[in-house]
Amino acid sequence: MKAIISHDIDHITVSEHLFRDIILPKYFMRMHIELFSGKISTREYILRWSDIFKNKWQNIDELITFNNINKVPSSFFVAVNKGVGLNYSNLSAAVWIEQMLNRKCELAIHGIAFDDQKHIQDEYNLFQHLTNQSQFGIRMHYVRNTENTYQMLAKAGYLYDSTEHAFKNPYKIGAMWEFPFQIMDGWVIENYKSWQSMNLEQAKQNTIKLIDKAAQSNIQFLGIDFHDRYFSHSFKTWLEWYMWLVEYLKGNGVEFVNFKQAIQELESYDAHGK
Ligand SMILES: [Zn+2]
């Protein structure tokens, strides 16, 4: 089993949310619940306030550096449209898109349009225009999908999608590869709540169960979604969970690849009829 780790960019600054959505009130609510339930320390609580004053809700540079040290290819999903609490502009995304391309990351789109062919195509074209890439993939924000989403993405020209949550191997829809993924940070740390409900040890145990399930299901590429936003001491459990997960996989001989490397591998299997 190999692993594909990818990162959704949901936020860049704090100010992008001001008077536009309810992310900030939710953030305050969440950090107080986590403080009073003993899930976060006073230090983390103070750091969360300091992030607000620094107007910094992304940790892209820090995460790429950590990944590079650990031989994890950095694969990002960046949005070019706004919606469902995602509110950064193309201009502010462009700064990070440039940085990701300079640092040789894999760059794909964090999709907003999911149920209308024209909107899906417009989003594809806009991303192509902004990033100058000819082939790229997508993951939907909040993994939104309908029964027709994947067909529409394939029709728009996407190389791959990784929105489906399932213990299944990659498969093709038209010319597009669908990479179901199995582990998301929030699923194991929040566990169906809107705040951190698990401690680090519980999150690790839940994760090990998912990895074991993937191995039993003969999953070829373990899909993991970790949000850069949590690669921070303000979210100590999340940060430590991610660093532990990379170590755990390395310790178990799991090699890291990005989506395009996985596709190359899948297509060379096909070509050799293996
Ligand atoms: Zn998202």
In the CATH classification, which architecture applies? Alpha-Beta Barrel
Helix content: 40-55%
CATH topological fold name: TIM Barrel
Give, in order, the helices and strands: EHHHEHEHEHEEEEHHEHEH
Domains (count) = 1
| CATH superfamily grouping | Glycoside hydrolase/deacetylase
How would you state the average pLDDT, rounded? 96
Total number of beta strands: 10
Distance between the termini: 16 Å
What report would you give on this structure?
This protein is an alpha/beta fold and 274 residues long. The protein has one domain: Alpha-Beta Barrel (TIM Barrel), CATH 3.20.20. The chain contains 10 helices and 10 strands. The chain has helices at residues 23-36, 42-54, 60-69, 90-102, 117-131, 149-156, 185-189, 200-216, 236-251, 259-272; strands at 2-8, 75-78, 106-111, 137-140, 160-161, 171-173, 176-178, 183-184, 221-225, 255-256. Strands 1, 2, 3, 4, 5, 6, 7, 8, 9 and 10 form a 10-stranded mixed beta sheet that branches. It is globular. The two termini are 16 Å apart. Bound molecules: zinc ion. Zinc ion (ZN) is lined by residues 8, 10, 110, 141-142. The site of zinc ion (ZN) has 5 residues, from loops.
In short:
Helices cover 46% and strands 14% of the residues.
Walk me through the topology.
Blueprint (H helix, E strand, L loop, with lengths): L1 E7 L14 H14 L5 H13 L5 H10 L5 E4 L11 H13 L3 E6 L5 H15 L5 E4 L8 H8 L3 E2 L9 E3 L2 E3 L4 E2 H5 L10 H17 L4 E5 L10 H16 L3 E2 L2 H14 L2
Parallel strand pairs: 1-2, 1-9, 1-10, 2-3, 3-4, 4-5, 5-7, 8-9
Antiparallel strand pairs: 6-7
Helix pairs in contact: 5-6, 8-9
